[in-house]
Amino acid sequence: MYKLFLFLRSSLFWVFFLVSTIVFAPLALMTFPFPVLQRYHFIVQWSRFNVWLLKLICGLKYEVQGKDNIPDGGMIFLSKHQSTWETMAFQLILPPHVWVLKRELFRIPFFGWGLKMLKPIAIDRSAGKRAVEQLVDQGIKKLKSNWSVMVFPEGTRVKPGKNVRYKLGGSILASQANFPVVPVAHNAGEFWPKHSFIKYPGTITVVIGKPIKAFDRKPEEINEEVKAWIEARMAEISDESRWGR
Protein backbone atom coordinates (compact mmCIF):
# COMPACT_ATOMS: atom_id res chain seq x y z
CA MET A 1 0.00 0.00 0.00
CA TYR A 2 2.87 2.38 0.77
CA LYS A 3 4.41 1.77 -2.67
CA LEU A 4 1.02 2.44 -4.26
CA PHE A 5 0.76 5.69 -2.30
CA LEU A 6 4.20 6.78 -3.51
CA PHE A 7 3.29 5.80 -7.07
CA LEU A 8 0.11 7.88 -7.01
CA ARG A 9 1.93 10.91 -5.58
CA SER A 10 4.69 10.61 -8.15
CA SER A 11 2.13 10.27 -10.94
CA LEU A 12 0.49 13.51 -9.85
CA PHE A 13 3.86 15.25 -9.79
CA TRP A 14 4.71 14.02 -13.30
CA VAL A 15 1.41 15.33 -14.64
CA PHE A 16 2.13 18.82 -13.31
CA PHE A 17 5.78 18.56 -14.40
CA LEU A 18 4.84 17.77 -18.01
CA VAL A 19 2.11 20.40 -18.16
CA SER A 20 4.40 23.08 -16.71
CA THR A 21 7.10 22.18 -19.24
CA ILE A 22 4.71 22.36 -22.20
CA VAL A 23 3.31 25.70 -20.99
CA PHE A 24 6.60 27.25 -19.98
CA ALA A 25 8.70 26.35 -23.03
CA PRO A 26 6.92 28.71 -25.47
CA LEU A 27 7.11 31.47 -22.85
CA ALA A 28 10.84 30.83 -22.52
CA LEU A 29 11.23 31.20 -26.29
CA MET A 30 9.55 34.59 -26.08
CA THR A 31 12.39 35.83 -23.84
CA PHE A 32 14.79 35.68 -26.81
CA PRO A 33 15.00 39.50 -27.27
CA PHE A 34 16.13 39.98 -23.65
CA PRO A 35 19.67 39.65 -22.21
CA VAL A 36 20.66 36.14 -21.11
CA LEU A 37 20.60 37.02 -17.40
CA GLN A 38 17.00 38.23 -17.66
CA ARG A 39 16.09 35.05 -19.53
CA TYR A 40 17.78 33.04 -16.78
CA HIS A 41 15.79 34.67 -13.98
CA PHE A 42 12.56 34.04 -15.87
CA ILE A 43 13.26 30.43 -16.83
CA VAL A 44 14.41 29.61 -13.29
CA GLN A 45 10.79 30.06 -12.23
CA TRP A 46 10.02 26.75 -13.95
CA SER A 47 12.57 25.05 -11.71
CA ARG A 48 11.24 26.88 -8.65
CA PHE A 49 7.71 25.69 -9.40
CA ASN A 50 8.71 22.04 -9.84
CA VAL A 51 10.96 21.95 -6.77
CA TRP A 52 8.03 23.38 -4.83
CA LEU A 53 5.77 20.69 -6.31
CA LEU A 54 8.18 18.00 -5.15
CA LYS A 55 7.86 19.28 -1.60
CA LEU A 56 4.09 19.74 -1.76
CA ILE A 57 3.15 16.49 -3.53
CA CYS A 58 6.01 14.07 -2.85
CA GLY A 59 7.25 15.34 0.51
CA LEU A 60 10.74 15.84 -0.93
CA LYS A 61 12.64 18.75 0.65
CA TYR A 62 16.27 19.83 0.77
CA GLU A 63 18.79 21.50 3.06
CA VAL A 64 22.00 23.29 2.12
CA GLN A 65 25.25 23.35 4.10
CA GLY A 66 28.15 25.67 3.31
CA LYS A 67 26.34 28.21 1.16
CA ASP A 68 28.57 30.92 2.65
CA ASN A 69 31.54 29.20 0.96
CA ILE A 70 30.44 30.54 -2.42
CA PRO A 71 32.74 33.40 -3.45
CA ASP A 72 31.77 36.46 -5.46
CA GLY A 73 32.21 36.47 -9.22
CA GLY A 74 32.53 33.63 -11.68
CA MET A 75 33.61 30.17 -10.55
CA ILE A 76 33.53 26.53 -11.65
CA PHE A 77 31.21 24.22 -9.76
CA LEU A 78 32.22 20.56 -9.86
CA SER A 79 29.33 18.52 -8.53
CA LYS A 80 28.19 15.01 -7.85
CA HIS A 81 25.55 13.90 -10.37
CA GLN A 82 23.00 11.34 -9.17
CA SER A 83 19.61 12.58 -10.22
CA THR A 84 17.49 14.91 -12.34
CA TRP A 85 16.76 16.86 -9.14
CA GLU A 86 20.01 18.82 -9.05
CA THR A 87 19.57 20.11 -12.60
CA MET A 88 16.52 22.00 -11.32
CA ALA A 89 17.37 22.76 -7.69
CA PHE A 90 20.89 24.06 -8.31
CA GLN A 91 19.36 26.97 -10.21
CA LEU A 92 17.71 28.01 -6.93
CA ILE A 93 20.65 27.22 -4.63
CA LEU A 94 23.62 28.54 -6.62
CA PRO A 95 24.31 31.89 -8.31
CA PRO A 96 23.59 32.20 -12.05
CA HIS A 97 25.50 29.54 -13.92
CA VAL A 98 25.59 27.66 -17.21
CA TRP A 99 25.78 23.91 -17.61
CA VAL A 100 28.22 21.92 -19.65
CA LEU A 101 26.02 19.46 -21.53
CA LYS A 102 25.74 17.39 -24.68
CA ARG A 103 24.22 19.08 -27.72
CA GLU A 104 21.65 16.33 -28.14
CA LEU A 105 19.62 17.74 -25.24
CA PHE A 106 18.54 20.65 -27.45
CA ARG A 107 16.55 18.17 -29.54
CA ILE A 108 14.17 17.33 -26.69
CA PRO A 109 10.81 19.00 -27.42
CA PHE A 110 9.84 21.83 -25.06
CA PHE A 111 12.57 21.15 -22.48
CA GLY A 112 15.39 21.49 -24.99
CA TRP A 113 13.90 24.68 -26.43
CA GLY A 114 13.89 26.41 -23.06
CA LEU A 115 17.31 25.04 -22.26
CA LYS A 116 18.81 26.60 -25.38
CA MET A 117 17.62 30.05 -24.26
CA LEU A 118 20.06 29.86 -21.33
CA LYS A 119 23.08 29.67 -23.67
CA PRO A 120 24.73 26.64 -22.00
CA ILE A 121 28.09 25.22 -23.03
CA ALA A 122 26.97 22.57 -25.49
CA ILE A 123 29.68 20.18 -26.61
CA ASP A 124 29.98 17.26 -28.97
CA ARG A 125 30.98 14.45 -26.64
CA SER A 126 32.05 12.26 -29.57
CA ALA A 127 34.67 14.82 -30.60
CA GLY A 128 37.25 13.61 -28.08
CA LYS A 129 39.99 16.20 -27.49
CA ARG A 130 38.02 18.76 -29.46
CA ALA A 131 35.17 18.49 -26.91
CA VAL A 132 37.56 19.61 -24.15
CA GLU A 133 38.71 22.50 -26.33
CA GLN A 134 35.08 23.52 -26.80
CA LEU A 135 34.57 23.43 -23.04
CA VAL A 136 37.65 25.56 -22.35
CA ASP A 137 36.99 28.11 -25.12
CA GLN A 138 33.34 28.65 -24.21
CA GLY A 139 33.95 28.30 -20.47
CA ILE A 140 36.57 31.06 -20.32
CA LYS A 141 34.21 33.43 -22.15
CA LYS A 142 31.41 32.67 -19.68
CA LEU A 143 33.67 33.08 -16.63
CA LYS A 144 35.03 36.41 -17.87
CA SER A 145 31.41 37.54 -18.33
CA ASN A 146 30.84 36.90 -14.61
CA TRP A 147 28.89 33.68 -15.19
CA SER A 148 29.75 30.54 -13.29
CA VAL A 149 30.08 27.16 -14.97
CA MET A 150 28.56 23.90 -13.70
CA VAL A 151 30.39 20.69 -14.60
CA PHE A 152 29.43 17.16 -13.58
CA PRO A 153 32.85 15.48 -13.70
CA GLU A 154 31.34 12.00 -13.63
CA GLY A 155 29.84 12.80 -17.03
CA THR A 156 26.47 11.17 -16.35
CA ARG A 157 24.15 10.31 -13.49
CA VAL A 158 25.72 7.73 -11.20
CA LYS A 159 23.71 5.61 -8.76
CA PRO A 160 24.42 6.05 -5.04
CA GLY A 161 27.27 3.88 -3.84
CA LYS A 162 28.85 3.60 -7.29
CA ASN A 163 32.22 5.18 -8.07
CA VAL A 164 33.36 6.23 -11.52
CA ARG A 165 36.34 8.13 -12.82
CA TYR A 166 36.11 11.90 -12.60
CA LYS A 167 36.77 13.39 -16.02
CA LEU A 168 39.31 16.20 -16.29
CA GLY A 169 37.30 18.71 -18.35
CA GLY A 170 36.24 20.98 -15.49
CA SER A 171 39.69 20.91 -13.89
CA ILE A 172 41.35 21.72 -17.22
CA LEU A 173 39.04 24.72 -17.54
CA ALA A 174 39.91 25.85 -14.00
CA SER A 175 43.64 25.44 -14.61
CA GLN A 176 43.63 27.36 -17.88
CA ALA A 177 41.16 30.06 -16.83
CA ASN A 178 42.61 30.48 -13.32
CA PHE A 179 39.17 30.64 -11.72
CA PRO A 180 38.35 28.89 -8.40
CA VAL A 181 36.64 25.52 -8.19
CA VAL A 182 33.76 25.01 -5.75
CA PRO A 183 33.00 21.32 -5.05
CA VAL A 184 29.43 20.23 -4.35
CA ALA A 185 28.18 16.95 -2.83
CA HIS A 186 24.56 15.81 -2.44
CA ASN A 187 22.52 12.65 -1.97
CA ALA A 188 19.59 13.39 -4.33
CA GLY A 189 19.91 9.96 -5.94
CA GLU A 190 18.65 8.35 -2.76
CA PHE A 191 15.31 10.15 -3.12
CA TRP A 192 14.98 10.62 -6.89
CA PRO A 193 16.90 7.59 -8.22
CA LYS A 194 18.18 7.40 -11.77
CA HIS A 195 15.45 6.17 -14.16
CA SER A 196 12.98 5.98 -11.26
CA PHE A 197 9.35 6.99 -11.70
CA ILE A 198 8.80 7.17 -7.94
CA LYS A 199 10.07 10.10 -5.86
CA TYR A 200 10.69 9.23 -2.21
CA PRO A 201 9.90 11.64 0.64
CA GLY A 202 12.68 12.98 2.83
CA THR A 203 15.30 15.71 2.90
CA ILE A 204 18.10 15.90 0.35
CA THR A 205 21.38 17.21 1.77
CA VAL A 206 23.53 19.50 -0.35
CA VAL A 207 27.04 20.37 0.87
CA ILE A 208 29.04 23.18 -0.73
CA GLY A 209 32.77 23.17 -0.15
CA LYS A 210 35.28 25.99 0.18
CA PRO A 211 36.82 27.30 -3.06
CA ILE A 212 39.81 25.35 -4.35
CA LYS A 213 42.49 27.51 -5.97
CA ALA A 214 43.52 26.56 -9.48
CA PHE A 215 46.42 28.96 -10.02
CA ASP A 216 49.63 27.26 -11.14
CA ARG A 217 48.19 23.76 -10.55
CA LYS A 218 47.88 20.81 -12.88
CA PRO A 219 44.34 19.67 -13.80
CA GLU A 220 45.05 16.19 -12.38
CA GLU A 221 45.95 17.71 -9.01
CA ILE A 222 42.80 19.83 -8.91
CA ASN A 223 40.67 16.87 -9.96
CA GLU A 224 42.05 14.61 -7.25
CA GLU A 225 41.43 17.21 -4.54
CA VAL A 226 37.86 17.75 -5.77
CA LYS A 227 37.13 14.02 -5.89
CA ALA A 228 38.61 13.42 -2.44
CA TRP A 229 36.47 16.20 -0.94
CA ILE A 230 33.25 15.17 -2.67
CA GLU A 231 33.58 11.47 -1.89
CA ALA A 232 34.44 12.21 1.75
CA ARG A 233 31.27 14.29 2.09
CA MET A 234 29.26 11.60 0.31
CA ALA A 235 30.37 9.09 2.94
CA GLU A 236 29.01 11.44 5.62
CA ILE A 237 25.60 12.20 4.09
CA SER A 238 24.77 8.91 2.36
CA ASP A 239 22.52 6.20 3.76
CA GLU A 240 23.11 2.72 2.32
CA SER A 241 19.58 1.62 3.24
CA ARG A 242 18.29 3.93 0.47
CA TRP A 243 20.63 2.74 -2.28
CA GLY A 244 18.48 -0.12 -3.52
CA ARG A 245 15.41 1.90 -4.33
Gist?
The protein has helices spanning 2-29, 36-58, 85-93, 111-116, 129-144, 169-177, 219-237, and strands at residues 60-65, 76-79, 97-102, 121-123, 148-151, 181-186, 202-208.
How would you explain this protein's 3D organization?
- Helices cover 45% and strands 15% of the residues.
- By secondary structure, the protein is α/β, with parallel strands linked by helices.
- It has a single domain, classed as Glycerol-3-phosphate (1)-acyltransferase (3-Layer(aba) Sandwich).
- It has a seven-stranded mixed β-sheet with strand order 1-7-6-2-5-3-4.
- The longest helix has 28 residues, at 2-29.
- It starts with a helix and ends in an 8-residue tail after the last helix.
- 34% of the residues are buried.
- The mean pLDDT is 92.
Key phrases:
single chain, 245 residues, alpha/beta, Glycerol-3-phosphate (1)-acyltransferase, 7-stranded mixed beta sheet, 7 strands, 15% strand
Question: How would you summarize the topology of this molecule?
Answer:
Blueprint (H helix, E strand, L loop, with lengths): L1 H28 L6 H23 L1 E6 L10 E4 L5 H9 L3 E6 L8 H6 L4 E3 L5 H16 L3 E4 L17 H9 L3 E6 L15 E7 L10 H19 L8
Parallel strand pairs: 1-7, 2-5, 2-6, 3-4, 3-5
Antiparallel strand pairs: 6-7
